[in-house]
Each structure stands twice: as structure tokens, then as C-alpha cells.
Design brief:
The protein is mostly beta strands. The protein contains two helices and nine strands. Helices cover 11% and strands 43% of the residues. The structure holds zinc ion (ZN) (2 copies).
Length: 139
Amino acid sequence: MRTGQCLCSAVQYRAQTAEAVSVCYCKMCQRWASGAFMGVMAEGFEVTAGSAHLKVAKTSEWAERGFCDQCGSNLFYRVPEPGYISVAFGSLDDTSGLQPSVQYYVDKRPEGFALATKTKEMTEAECVAFFAPKEGDQP
Ligand SMILES: [Zn+2]
Ligand SMILES: [Zn+2]
């Protein structure tokens, strides 16, 4: 179980996280997080303080992003259906043991921003083929 919070501490949460950190360079994540968004898949996400300050914006057909309405810190990326959440790496209080494992939209990665750690890499086309809902899929 790990705990996390926004910059002003108004919103606090706890969750069980994976140890793999995913890094996304898509333009949406760049706009949202300034550079890459670094996220950690989590289960049992629970807001422990400041739920009134947690705002959730629907940012695409299938995803939404959570942030603190007091300080603006990004807290998570969430896909309600089928239901998964990736908490913002930087919002975690303790990130020991977490390692980058995959980089998404590497063809959108700003020049000179390669990670020192070798990870799996996926281009935009590979990400869309892998993640986007496909026509004919069962709901
Ligand atoms: Zn805050
Ligand atoms: Zn992204």
C-alpha cells in the first residue's frame, strides 16, 4: 500500500500500486503534465482526505484525469470502462522500488528526452492499435 498527495496536501489518497512505471509522451499528456506523464497502475484507489477538492475532467472519449482544485496537481489518469487507474508517479509519497517499464508514443517524444533506463517502447500507431476501442468489440 502506498500513499500520495497533491502539492498543497489538500487531496490525499492510498492505493496498491504496481512497481512498473509507464511514461507517455502523447500530446494530451504533454499538455496536461508539461512533459511526459509518468503513471503507476493502481488498485484499491481510495481518497483519504480532501475528496471535495478532487476534480475529475473527462479528457477523451474513454479517459478522464483527476487533479486538485486548490493547487492544480495532477493525481491520476483513469479509464472508467473497463476500469483502471494510473496514479501520477510524482504524487506518491514514496516511490522506492518503482522502475520505468514502458514508454508510450515514443514517436512524439521531444528531442533529447530519452530515458537512461531501457524500457519497452510503443509508437502512436502501436498504442492506438493496442488501446483504442475497436469497432465490433463487445461493450
Ligand atoms: Zn492540492
Ligand atoms: Zn499520453
